[in-house]
Design brief:
By secondary structure, this protein is an alpha/beta fold. Helix 2 (29-42) packs parallel to helix 4 (83-91), helix 6 (126-142) crosses helix 7 and helix 16 (390-402) packs across helix 17. The radius of gyration is 25 Å and the shape is globular.
Length: 578
């Protein structure tokens, strides 16, 4: 009986799949981790995820989008790595800030414990104190369900950021080595993502970079159970055999993750190569798992490939040099476009190129930017910080308003619409945001009084907040299915000045959604315009492939002159609440 109970307890304990990367960064470890989760979930297993970022920042909140891509915001207000957005979109789960582990968080926790005397006068060292903190954090977070259930997940997928050999990731490698040893082979599976390049001159798939990467990983005490090989083309058989021989990984456990038309195909590639069988066998989960059911996922991936019509969307942004800066916006546009049987054709417009000054300093870029804007079916201005490009955004909003071009402003984009309306309709030539001009007499956008002016990290209005519809017949309300309120994620420290609201509403700019106090403006709509909407929140963070965000879907429908077909926007879409 005792033996049977012990076996049952071991079977029910959370098991771990670790994703590491080698050779170069940017191989797609996040998509691989998400896809592994999708395949395991399709087998009937419950999955949670952890992303480890070895940088010293406590979180991603103060990092430049040019440096690290977008900052993804969670329901609990956590400002985290964009890979957690991939996890949420692929697995349809709700993660917390604790699911993103950083070196900064770990060291902060260790130092706080040392100051409190928790280590009883011992010399605090990387081993065992830092490594123990990492292990405890992983096991604590993995026990928290993220899918609305009460039991811990069956499998926790851990993605280790960076590449093997990076000096900053060494404490995590050591902690994960200790964790794998203490858990045992039946509870820990390691998938190493590596690059198999093709040299242009030779035209041959080269295995040596992966061999060296695996050798370094094994020298640190971790041996991969599966290899996920990134390549432009499918691997040839002899390459797999060579990798198996030199990396000590069975041929059937070498996964070929070649380039695909869209990333929704990656879980299907893993399924087709029986990755789930190898992982389930390694983790001794055969009794809990069934065959993968990915019919819905397959239909989604293939339907995108078969779409022939597209819609041009002008994205007027500040960080266009790195498209990952707007990753969630791009994905939300993808979800909504596919729901409308269209492919999104995003036209990247640098806001600064639209400005009058650019006509002199960069006339070609200025002309090209305006040509692109005018050739698009709709305009979207996403969130951002700082005054660079603001004049160009205001001009884009003015063009959309005057020419009745469908417009969606998100966070900063909503504030831009308020500034533009104040200047060009109300005649307040000095109307501005306190963010850009602290001395303006017409602060139509102001600093939120409760936000710190001395600290930048984790001081904004963050996380999921409730927005109440004050005008149930508004277009935005209808897009959400006419609920009394919606719950969406926020990330801002400036807001519309409520003292200017009566003037703006009299001019036709209606504030149809507010917070619970009624003083914080959340949604704005322009009267006598087919689609001109601004939202203070970030609807892109809750968009899912099968539950697209209503504001984005509304924009696509308006761009294709189908906005009246509100039945196409499913009631209870992303962000809707009852």
């Amino acid at each position: 009986m005792a033996a049977a109970a012990a076996e049952e307890e071991g079977r029910l304990a959370t098991k771990y799949v670790l994703i590491t990367g080698g050779v170069v960064s940017g191989l797609g470890k996040g998509v691989t981790a998400s896809s592994v989760g999708v395949v395991l979930k399709s087998c009937g297993l419950r999955v949670t995820c952890i992303k480890i970022d070895p940088y010293l920042n406590t979180d991603a909140g103060t990092m430049s989008p040019f440096e690290h891509g977008e900052v993804f915001v969670l329901d609990d207000g956590g400002e985290v790595d964009l890979d957690l957005g991939n996890y949420e979109r692929f697995l349809d789960v709700t993660l917390t800030r604790e699911n993103n582990i950083t070196t900064g968080k770990i060291y902060q926790s260790v130092i706080e414990k040392e100051r409190k005397g928790d280590y009883l006068g011992k010399t605090v060292q990387v081993v065992p104190h830092v490594t123990d903190e990492i292990k405890n954090w992983i096991q604590s977070v993995s026990s928290v369900p993220v899918d609305g259930q009460t039991r811990p997940a069956d499998v926790c997928v851990i993605e280790l950021g960076g590449t093997v050999g990076d000096i900053e990731s060494m404490p995590f490698i050591e902690a994960l080595r200790q964790l794998s040893f203490s858990l045992g082979k039946d509870n820990f599976c390691l998938i190493h993502v590596s690059l198999v390049p093709v040299l242009g001159v030779v035209g041959e798939q080269k295995t040596k970079p992966t061999q060296h990467s695996v050798r370094e990983l094994r020298a640190l005490g971790l041996t991969p159970d599966l290899l996920a090989c990134r390549s432009a083309q499918p691997l040839i058989g002899s390459v797999k055999e060579k990798l198996s021989q030199f990396c000590h990984v069975p041929v059937e456990n070498i996964l070929d993750i070649h380039d695909v038309p869209n990333i929704w195909h990656v879980p299907l590639i893993l399924r087709n190569q029986k990755a789930h069988e190898a992982i389930i066998k390694q983790l001794n989960l055969a009794r809990s798992a069934g065959p993968p059911v990915l019919r819905d996922w397959t239909q989604m991936a293939e339907s995108y490939d078969n779409l022939s019509n597209s819609v041009k969307i002008a994205l007027v942004g500040k960080y266009n040099n790195l498209t990952d800066s707007y990753l969630s916006v791009v994905k939300a546009l993808l979800h909504s476009s596919v729901a409308c049987s269209l492919k999104p054709s995003i036209q990247w417009v640098a806001a600064s190129d639209l400005e009058d000054a650019a006509a002199t300093s960069a006339p070609d870029a200025h002309a090209k930017a305006w040509e692109t804007l005018k050739d698009s079916s709709c305009i979207l201005i996403p969130g951002g910080f700082g005054d660079r490009g603001i004049s160009g955004m205001i001009l884009a909003a003015k063009y959309a308003r005057e020419n009745k071009v469908p417009y969606l402003g998100i966070c900063l984009g909503m504030q831009i619409s308020v500034i533009e309306m104040s200047r060009h309709v109300l005649g307040l030539g000095d109307a501005d945001s306190e963010e850009f001009n602290t001395d303006t007499p017409d602060r139509v956008v102001m600093y939120m009084p409760e936000v710190s002016k001395t600290h930048m990290g984790n001081t904004m209005r963050l996380g999921c907040r409730r927005t109440f519809f004050h005008k149930p017949d508004s277009l935005t309300s209808k897009m959400y299915g006419s609920p009394p309120h919606v719950d969406e994620r926020h990330r801002h420290r400036y807001e519309v000045n409520p003292s200017f609201v009566p003037m703006l509403e009299k001019a036709g700019l209606q504030f149809v959604g507010c917070d619970e106090s009624g003083n914080r403006m959340e949604i704005v709509e322009l009267q006598d315009h087919p689609f001109y909407i601004g939202v203070q929140y970030h609807p892109e963070f809750k968009s899912r492939p099968r539950r697209p965000s209503p504001p984005f879907t509304g924009l696509i429908l308006a761009a294709t002159e189908h906005i009246r077909t509100l039945a196409n926007i499913s009631n209870g879409g992303a962000g809707a609440s009852e």
